[in-house]
Specification:
Length: 428
């Protein structure tokens, strides 16, 4: 019995095999962690600086409007570019661009009168550079680990991202509150420099001889490929339904202050989902034994919606924090298996374009969800907005999975695309 329990616990432990076996995976993981940590420090400093300079909440929110167009345009173009050029070169060149942009942000803080227009310009340029870089970084992951190690690699990458999501804002808040935004942006700059230097140590990962040059036709080819594959289409739609209908973050200030009467604990609401996601990542060893990954995505997203809805009924803030943590864990499971499906089934010559499409879905769903939550809360109540979002999420995910029933039947052992990629990796 003791041996059996020990074996069961071992199945939960995060799998470190990709870390031990792949030098380039270690480089990607460390560089991405440092880059994300610094970026989250800047994520706190930028709106703080804007608000200090303008005193306007709209001026802070306008940064999101400034970055939408670059995200859409260059996210799709960056995906097509990643399928054509050498990916290490693209990572390094976009990293250098981000170094320059971050240095401008630091310099601007040192001026007697920091320029607001320059902050918006740097925000837009950074969105361009990030949109060009991210598809290449994500498309590299399946190239640096073995096919069967992809679930563990995705879980480790997510875990380090969650650590940055927790530690970065905390560090940023301390820095802007004690030594000022110059130091915060300097930390972000240091992280970008370090990550870019690490990217230069990667091996060369060239695309195939018959890769398609970036163009509208190439981008359209990626979109057509995604729509023709119902399993891929379902991964995008299930996530967008979940995020659009049950994204509660914009309501946290009102929920903590007006409903739960605990404004001092507002920060814990923001941290709850990341804590839950981290717990899910740390116990993700079981994921490599799951083959019906579509079902896992559907069930996890339904659990996300249900947990958010229950949190909306919370009688006190600790109840809400607990269920938002459950929601974060469920979302992490959904992210894990969606990423595994993408990385185990998409051909290398298409990975960049599909990563660009995924980035848009991942970004636009939450943006739309926050607008929906705010509108419903203004028309009804904060509780109604959160609870109705959770209920609608569950219903919407069920409807989507019924419509795209192939997703529910997806099996990584027999799916033609997964088998093809597994055989290609084995032959290579």
């Amino acid at each position: 019995m003791a041996v059996s329990l020990r074996a069961q616990l071992a199945r939960l432990r995060v799998d470190l095999t990709p870390w031990r076996g792949s030098r380039d995976f270690r480089i990607l993981l460390v560089s991405g962690s440092v880059f994300f940590l610094g970026g989250m420090v800047g994520y706190v400093a930028l709106p703080y600086q804007l608000y200090q300079l303008t005193g306007s909440n709209f001026a802070v929110g306008a940064m999101g409007l400034v970055t939408i167009a670059p995200l859409v345009v260059f996210g799709l173009y960056g995906g097509a570019l990643a399928d054509h050029v050498e990916r290490r070169t693209l990572l390094v060149s976009t990293g250098l661009a981000q170094v320059v942009i971050s240095a401008l942000m630091v310099t601007n803080t040192l001026l007697p009168h920091p320029q607001i227009w320059l902050i918006y310009l740097c925000g837009a340029l950074n969105a361009v550079a990030s949109s060009l870089q991210r598809p290449s970084r994500e498309a590299l992951l399946p190239r640096v680990v073995r096919h069967q190690e992809i679930p563990a690699a995705v879980a480790l990458s997510s875990l380090t991202g969650q650590i940055g999501q927790l530690a970065g804002p905390a560090l940023g808040g301390v820095l802007v509150g004690t030594v000022g935004v110059t130091w915060a942006f300097s930390v972000e700059l240091t992280g970008i420099v370090f990550a870019t230097l690490l990217y230069t140590r990667l091996g060369s990962y060239r695309t195939g001889d018959h890769s398609t040059a970036p163009s509208l036709r190439a981008i359209g080819g990626g979109i057509v490929y995604a729509f023709r594959r119902k399993d891929l289409l379902a991964t995008y739609l299930v996530d967008m339904v979940g995020m659009f209908l049950a994204m509660p973050i914009v309501l946290f200030p009102a929920f903590a202050t007006e409903i739960l009467k605990e404004p001092k604990l507002l920060g814990l609401l923001y941290s709850a989902e990341a804590i839950g996601a981290m717990c899910a990542s740390l116990t993700s060893g079981w994921a490599k034994h799951v083959h019906h990954q579509g079902r896992a995505v559907v069930i996890a997203t339904m659990c996300w919606g249900a947990a958010v809805g229950i949190a909306g009924l919370a009688p006190n803030i600790w109840f809400a924090i607990a269920f938002f943590a459950v929601a974060g864990a469920a979302d992490m499971v959904s992210v894990l298996f969606r990423s595994v499906i993408w990385n185990q089934t998409i051909p290398d010559e298409m990975r960049g374009r599909l990563a660009g499409i995924e980035m848009l879905g991942y970004s636009l769903g939450p943006l739309g969800g926050q607008a929906r939550s705010g509108l419903v809360a203004d028309l009804t109540t904060v509780r109604t907005a959160i609870v109705s979002g959770g209920v609608l999420c569950v219903a919407g995910v069920v409807a989507t999975s019924v419509w795209l029933r192939e997703f529910w039947r997806y099996d990584a052992r027999t799916d033609e695309h997964a088998v093809r990629e597994r055989d290609l990796r084995a032959a290579g």
